[in-house]
Each structure stands twice: as structure tokens, then as C-alpha cells.
Amino acid sequence: MKTLIPLVIVAFLVALTPRPLAAQEANEFYQAALDLYQDGDVLLALQEVNYALRVEPDHLQAKALRRNIMARHGSVLEMLAQKKRLESTILPSVDLQDVSFNTALEYLREQTKKATNGKFVPNFVVRGDRDLNEVRVSLQLSAIPLSDTLRYLCDKAGMRYRPDKHAILIEPIPTANSSSEAAGNAGS
Asked: What is the predicted pLDDT for the residue at 182?
């Protein structure tokens, strides 16, 4: 009888071990991720596979799926993360009075750094041959996402922005003339 009691206690403790539940939960997250991935919803699939790996860090199938997602869609996911940072960064105020476009970008860079306590400092890459020091802009805004601020700023300068993997690209808005010129040059 004395040997039976410790065995019962050990069996009870093993039964209470959360490992099988964690494995089951990780499998459920993995299966949801796989279904989402096969349906083409890469972002949600990545989110589910990350949940599976939080619950069960050594889940081999989840690790393989995550590697596959990142190998095939990593740059898109990084661009989406950049876009999310732009949308979630709220600038308390923007006060620009008749400054050059380049000065405005530097101001936004500093305001973003300040608003995020240095966690996000955007890299702006300006494309095109236009001298943006000659383009003057004014903006007065408060409690606004960085994404909207950039959109307003670019609209005023005839530019557009788009998040890229490591930077925010700023380029001229194509016009009908530039499109037809490009088509004419392509045929030459």
C-alpha cells in the first residue's frame, strides 16, 4: 500500500501536466494557420502560426510553415509592418508654415522619433528629379496618424508615398504626359 500511494500521486501529477493541452492548442493554431495560408490569407496565417509557436516553441510543423511564409512573403509582410507603423504612430501636433518639402520630411522624422520614444525613426527616400527644396508646404494638424500626415504633405507637393521594406518611398505622382512619354520612349 505504501508504494501505491506515491504511484498514484505521480500519476495524478503527470495527468495535470499542461504539456498535452499545450500541444493540442498548438496543433489547433497550426491547423488554423495552414487553412488560412491555403486560402491565401498570409497575414492571419502568420499570426496563427506565431500563436502556435508561443504555446509550443518546438512545434516542427509550425516552424516549417513559418519558414515557408517568410521565405515566400517576407518582404510583403515587412512592407505591411511598415504601413502599420505609419498608421499607428500618432503625432500630437504638426505645425509647418511655408517650409520646403525636404524640411517638412525632416520635421516629421523628428516628430515621429519623439512620439515613439525613439522606437521608430522613418527613413524617407525621395525619388525623381524634382528639386523639393523649392516646393513650399504648410500644414497645421493635431493628433493625427503619421500615414495621414504624409498623405497630406505629399498631396500638397504633387507627390505620393508608399511604404517599402526599409524606407518610405516618396515619388512624383505620374501624370498623363509622363505615362504617354514613357510609352513613346518604349516604342523607340
From this structure: 47
Same-domain pairing of 79 and 93: no
Give the separation between CA 132 and CA 151, rounded to whole angstroms: 16
Q: Give 42-71 as a DSSP string.
A: HHHHHHHHHHHHHH-TT-HHHHHHHHHHHH
What's the predicted TM-score (pTM) here? 0.62
Q: Does residue 44 sit in the same domain as residue 61? A: yes
Sorted by sequence, the CB contacts under 8 Å of residue 17 that are 6+ apart come out as: none
Distance (Å, whole) CA 103 – CA 121: 16
Whether 48 contacts 29, CB under 8 Å: yes
Coil, strand or helix: which one is 116? coil
